[in-house]
Amino acid sequence: MALRSVSRMLNNRAINQVCKRAYSDEMSFTFAAGNRVFYDAKSVKQVDVPSFSGAFGILPKHVPTIAVLKPGVVSIFENDGSVKKVFVSSGTVTINEDSSVQVLAEEAAPVENLDLAAARDALNKAQSQLNSASSEKAKAEAAIAVEVAEAIVKAAE
């Protein structure tokens, strides 16, 4: 019954597109930032990403999606069982019908390269700037800096 009500909402073209979708058992993963390419079409098991719509995991056969990344850690679960963690400041994730996934980050760094003391320093400075901001623009910029710094501190701990 639920399927009938859903199918009435979709036109025949949309239904045919969903039924024709060919998913793969493998997931090709590309991950790059302005400063570095982390993965270039490598097959991985799973990727977990921080998103403004909520953190989510990506597996092969994931529904096609486009999402905006928020500051946080992208976890890459490799086929050999190892897990790589990379901090991203922001960016996008695209999941395609062929199970390929692209993460494009504004800035990214392996979690093991983060300096906790420097991150705490940056957070303190950003919070001071937020408290002393007088214009709406300065407040918005400082709020973004606080959000990123808080995420870096959390990732580095």
CATH homologous superfamily classification of the largest domain: F0F1 ATP synthase delta/epsilon subunit, N-terminal
Uncertain runs with pLDDT below 50, 5 residues or more?
A: 18-23
Radius of gyration: 19 Å
Strand residues, percent: 35-45%
Shape: elongated
The helix/strand order is HHEEEEEEEEEHH
Domains (count): 2
Q: How helical, in percent, are the residues?
A: 25-40%
Tell me, what is the CATH class of the largest domain?
A: Mainly Beta
Total DSSP helices: 4
Q: Which fold name corresponds to the CATH topology of the largest domain?
A: ATP Synthase, domain 1
Multimerization state: single chain
Looking at the overall shape, the CATH architecture of the largest domain is Sandwich
Reported for the largest beta sheet, the result is: 9 strands, mixed
Describe this structure in words.
It comes from Cryptolaemus montrouzieri. Residues 29-108 form the ATP synthase F1 complex delta/epsilon subunit N-terminal domain. One of its GO terms (biological process) is proton transmembrane transport. Belongs to the ATPase epsilon chain family. Residues 116-143 form a coiled coil. The protein has two domains: 22-112, ATP Synthase, domain 1, CATH 2.60.15.10; 114-156, Single alpha-helices involved in coiled-coils or other helix-helix interfaces (Up-down Bundle), CATH 1.20.5. The longest helix is centred in the C-terminal third of the chain and has 21 residues, at 136-156. The protein has helices spanning 2-9, 12-20, 116-132, 136-156; strands at residues 27-33, 36-49, 56-58, 65-69, 72-78, 83-88, 91-95, 100-105, 108-110. Helix 3 (116-132) runs antiparallel to helix 4 (136-156). The protein is of the alpha+beta class. 35% of the residues lie in helices and 36% in strands. Strands 1, 2, 3, 4, 5, 6, 7, 8 and 9 form a nine-stranded mixed sheet that branches. It has four helices and nine strands. The chain is elongated and about 50 Å long.
